[in-house]
Amino acid sequence: MASVEVSLKEMMAGIEGALGAAVVDYTSGMALGTLGGSKSLDLTVASAGNTDVVRAMVRTMEQPGLKSQIEDILITLDSQYHLIRLVTGRNGNSLFLYLVLDKGCSNLAMARHQLKRVEGAIEI
């Protein structure tokens, strides 16, 4: 099992094109940890903003008749991918992994695969 710090390092080092990573509690909107980012990419602000996206999706999926679970949410910008993966399983309630990728030099399929692996190992 991996801590928040270890998980952030795995996201940044293990995923090509990673610009920033965060582990976020979507109940409070607070990032439990961040790594990377820049002046133009404030991960704390972005994490808080994406909390609203996650909450809306979770509420939608709780509607009667919707039996699927959210794996991830993708936001595509002109130069970046913003990938959000909900953490499931024990101790994962109300958490998501947030990864920002450089669109020009990242492999989205591999990033999703690696985030799934990180999600399976994280323990809070």
Topology diagram in text:
Layout: H1 4-14, E1 18-25, E2 30-36, H2 43-61, E3 72-76, E4 80-86, E5 95-102, H3 108-121
Antiparallel strand pairs: 1-2, 1-5, 3-4, 4-5
Helix pairs in contact: 1-3
Portion in beta strands: 25-35%
Q: What structural class do the secondary elements suggest? A: alpha+beta
Major sheet, described briefly? Answer: 5 strands, antiparallel
Shape designation: globular
Helix content: 25-40%
Please count the helical segments. Answer: 3
Keywords for this structure?
35% helix, alpha+beta, 3 helices, five-stranded antiparallel β-sheet, 124 residues, Beta-Lactamase, globular
Could you characterize the architecture of this molecule?
It is a single chain. This protein is an alpha+beta fold. It has a single domain, classed as 2-Layer Sandwich (Beta-Lactamase). Helix content is 35%, strand content 28%. A five-stranded antiparallel beta sheet has the order 2-1-5-4-3, with helices on both faces. Helix 1 runs antiparallel to helix 3. The radius of gyration is 14 Å and the shape is globular.
Task: Offer a quick outline of the entry.
The protein is an alpha+beta fold and 124 residues long. It has 3 helices and 5 strands.
